[in-house]
Amino acid sequence: MPQRKILSSLAGLAAAAMAVTAFAGAPAATAAPAPEPVRSTTVSSYAGSPQDAAANKAFYDAVMKSALAKQAKSGNKLAAVTVRYRVNAPTFATQISRSTQIWNSSVTNVRLVQSTSGYDFYYTEGNDPRGSYASTNGHGRGYIFLDYRQAQVYDPTRITAHETGHVLGLPDHYSGPCSELMSGGGPGPSCTNAYPNSTERRRVNQLWANGFTGLSSFQTVR
User: Fold this and answer.
1) Signal peptide span per the entry (predicted)?
2) Spatial distance between the Cα atoms of 57 and 60, rounded to a whole number of angstroms
3) Which residue has the higher pLDDT, 52 or 103?
């Protein structure tokens, strides 16, 4: 896939919005198509989400609103907010499980839990010229798309954990080192680190502190 930068143009956001509107409810649990072979002319780098900072914030806001609404309805003021996700990406089931373990062991104020109903976001898969990305329908649900070709060149667990970082409020920071999860593909295909660094862990805990963090607190991690 050609070298990509974060899309910041209105055209890019419009394309993302069109993709989102196709989701109108629970994704169908259909068998995934076979991954296409790696083509070096079309897969050259992994830059993470093609959304700009505003789109990533919208995704985080939607998931947080959905999770907090469920918590408020339950009447339980829990120390950690539970964010529920559905897996509609069987090819990446192992990587999704591993990413969940990594995040749940790295932060304390939010917990990711797999669910088949009442979920706040879901994972899906396929081939897309944009690669892997996180998006939202603007109505309390979002999804993470995992790209086959990209995952054949770059570490799929790092990709999955990186995109999940957007769910938890972290923006892309491609110029960062391999030790920074949200640097995405900036360090190149040899980088397989799937763990957030101390700054990223601290930021997520701040964003989800005790389940009552304001949505306006989203800031870019540097």
Assistant:
1) 1-24
2) 5
3) 103
| First CA to last CA distance, the chain | 27
163 catalytically annotated = yes
Q: How far apart are CA 189 and CA 47, in angstroms?
A: 11
The pLDDT of residue 122 is above 60: yes
Q: Are 127 and 37 in contact (CB under 8 A)?
A: no
Give just the sign of the alpha carbon dihedral 17, 222, 164, 73.
negative
Q: Which of 134-162 are b and which e, b meaning 16 or more Cβ less than 10 Å from the residue's Cβ?
A: bbbbeebbbbbbbbbbbbebbbbbbbbbb
Q: Which amino acid is at 181?
A: L
pLDDT band at 47 (very low <50, low <70, confident <90, very high): low
Q: Give the active site residue among 125, 163, 180, 200.
A: 163
Q: Which of 49, 30, 27 is nearest to 128 (CA)?
A: 49
